[in-house]
Amino acid sequence: MSWVTDIQKALDYIEANLLEKLHSEEVAKQANTSPFHFQRTFAILTDMTLGEYIRRRRLTSAAIELGNFDEKIIDIALKYGYETPEAFTKAFKKQHHISPSEVKKYRGKLQLYQPLKIHVTLEGVEPMNHTIISKESFQVVGIRKNYSLENDENLKEIPKFWNQVNQDGTCERLLSLNNGSIKGLLGVCVDYKKQQEIEYWIAVNYDGDSTNFETITIPASTWAVFQVTGEMPQAMQHTWKQIFSEWFPTSGYRHAGTVELEVYPEGDSNRSDFYSEIWVPVIKEL
What we know:
The protein is α+β, with helices and mostly antiparallel strands. Helix 1 packs across helix 2 (24-30), helix 2 packs across helix 3 (35-46) and helix 5 crosses helix 6 (85-96). The chain is built from ten helices and nine strands. Helix content is 41%, strand content 23%. Strands 1, 2, 3, 4, 5, 6, 7, 8 and 9 form a nine-stranded antiparallel beta sheet that branches. It folds into two domains: 2-104, Arc Repressor Mutant, subunit A (Orthogonal Bundle); 130-284, Alpha-Beta Barrel (Multidrug-efflux Transporter 1 Regulator Bmrr, Chain A). Strand 3 (185-191) and strand 4 (197-205) form a beta hairpin. It is elongated, with a radius of gyration of 22 Å. The relative contact order is 0.13. It comes from Cytobacillus stercorigallinarum. Keywords: DNA-binding, Transcription, Transcription regulation.
């Protein structure tokens, strides 16, 4: 279970460097993965972003120190990375619902977050319908945007991108070109491993000469293809969580770190029986 071990190394690194300026690249390096894949995995497993977790842990430690030691609020604020007492107080009240000065007077309950530990539970795991396939490189056409990983911009902006193409007719134009073996609209995520951004495509599998859309070649890969059944986006989100919390830790595979695909066939995505797929590039654990 080296995948689980790697994630725990990253969590331990965060805890050991809580008072330092933490960069997602360095955190991800502890888990032998890219910033994007670590942040994505973390958010799926914990239902919070990496930035939120670090902020919660710092404010937890700050609250404990305020309640137990005779330190000035401004000193605690600076210690935990806040430039002004005002900024610290605002963040502190958002988490704990009381001010730092009230903690010093022992009034109110605190919202404390303990360090995370990764555990794998095998009992009661839902069966996951999936296949492992090898596929040669193939072409997709579509439109793309680049998103920063800073402040979780990618998580906020990609849903807006989908709303845009659904409303302006782009989806219909793309689907009219879909002549490849993978049927439906594709959400294609390309990870820039050495940069703080990703490239996200909304596209279709298209075999032929260039069109009015941009073209990208998806590299030959071994894919774990997961079946998803249910209303969007809940069913897709649930399956991603299963993949990272249940399948990867026990499968003998790890993420290959290359392009990911979400496949959305034509149909009503609000139906409880809507069928879609997640394609994850994988390699065997060493």
